[in-house]
């Protein structure tokens, strides 16, 4: 049997795949019966198709600093903003280090998207942990404006962290704990804390084996591409987050694959498109894959 699922994607919020896997439908009809799931992948700028057996773990983190308040004309000690800025500086230094591992010392000015830059290199985004500061909040609000002469007692930021499978999530947790301790003021009342924000997020890695002795379905997938369709493929770690993570967390084999090669990686870029020949080839490739997978019996 081949089942198709239609759920809201990660851009649209909502429960999506996580809710489906927690539903009565899945538990009564599908649980224990899924041999392999196929999900989205990424385009390839070469002749080689990218096949994703795992992905980085997304952590959205909220950081809050509390400090002394007072009039803006004074030198206030142990303010929330200075503590928060100390932590954001550590975050940016970590980001700089991971970027250097990925890109090397040379800066890439012609490419804005790291997905495209690293496609030309042996390392991929899945090999490193990215961190971005996505919100910054501070200020004493008065009606629809701010009190510009008051030092705020609270300052906040949020971090989008994508943890590579090569790094255990506990290392990131310990790193955040250490940053908070080092950036907190000396007094016990003024400090920096962090909390995990994702209600249905996963806090441990889960990958699909590419060892055909353990996972024969990967062997069928690989054979269909390389022998039946005569194309090359390369297993990789997906750099962002897909619905596959919820499937893998339940022990369900899942591969991320978009049959798009020899075309630019335009994920979430302006004017995202794929060439017509790439689209037509993708249909041919998927037909071949489904024929091979659908006729295999484990």
Can you walk through the features of this model?
There is one protein chain. With 298 residues, the protein is an alpha+beta fold. The protein folds into 2 domains: 33-56 and 204-294, DNA polymerase, domain 1 (Orthogonal Bundle), CATH 1.10.150; 57-196, 2-Layer Sandwich (Alpha-Beta Plaits). It is 32% helix and 21% strand. It contains 8 helices and 12 strands.
Taking the alpha carbons of the first and last residues, their distance comes to 13 Å
Mean pLDDT: 90
> Treating each run of at least 4 consecutive H or I residues as one helix, how many helices?
8
Which fold name fills CATH's third level, the topology of the largest domain? Alpha-Beta Plaits
Strand order of the main beta sheet, please?
A: 1-12-2-11
> Which CATH architecture of the largest domain?
2-Layer Sandwich
For the record, the count of structural domains works out to 2
Determine Rg (CA atoms, Å): 23 Å
What general outline do the C-alpha atoms trace?
A: elongated
Secondary-structure-derived class: alpha+beta
Low-confidence stretches: 115-119
Classify the beta-strand content into a percent band: 15-25%
Main sheet makeup: 4 strands, mixed
Task: Please count the beta strands (DSSP E, at least 2 residues each).
Answer: 12
Helix content: 25-40%
CATH class of the largest domain: Alpha Beta
Write down the secondary-structure element order. HHEEEEHHEEEEEHEHEHEH
């Amino acid at each position: 049997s081949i089942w198709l699922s239609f759920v809201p994607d990660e851009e649209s919020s909502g429960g999506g795949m996580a809710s489906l896997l927690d539903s009565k439908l899945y538990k009564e009809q599908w649980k224990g019966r899924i041999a392999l799931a196929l999900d989205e992948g990424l385009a390839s700028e070469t002749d080689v198709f990218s096949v994703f057996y795992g992905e980085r773990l997304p952590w959205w983190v909220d950081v809050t600093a509390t400090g002394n308040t007072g009039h803006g004309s004074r030198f206030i000690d142990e303010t929330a903003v200075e503590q928060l800025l100390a932590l954001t500086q550590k975050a940016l230094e970590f980001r700089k280090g991971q970027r250097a591992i990925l890109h090397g010392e040379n800066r890439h000015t012609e490419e804005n998207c790291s997905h495209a830059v690293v496609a030309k290199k042996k390392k991929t985004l899945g090999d490193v942990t990215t961190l971005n500061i996505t919100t910054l909040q501070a200020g004493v609000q008065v009606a629809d404006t701010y009190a510009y002469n008051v030092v705020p007692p609270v300052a906040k930021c949020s971090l989008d962290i994508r943890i590579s499978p090569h790094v255990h999530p506990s290392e990131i947790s310990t790193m955040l704990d250490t940053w908070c301790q080092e950036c907190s003021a000396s007094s016990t009342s003024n400090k920096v804390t962090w909390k995990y924000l994702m209600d249905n997020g996963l806090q441990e890695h889960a990958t699909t084996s590419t060892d055909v002795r353990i996972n024969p379905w990967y062997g069928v997938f690989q054979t269909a591409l390389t022998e039946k369709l005569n194309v090359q493929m390369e297993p990789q770690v997906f750099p962002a987050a897909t619905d596959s993570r919820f499937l893998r967390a339940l022990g369900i084999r899942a591969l991320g694959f978009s049959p798009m090669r020899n075309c630019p990686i335009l994920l979430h870029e302006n004017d995202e498109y794929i060439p017509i020949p790439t689209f037509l080839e993708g249909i041919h490739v998927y037909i071949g894959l489904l024929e091979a997978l659908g006729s295999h019996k484990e």
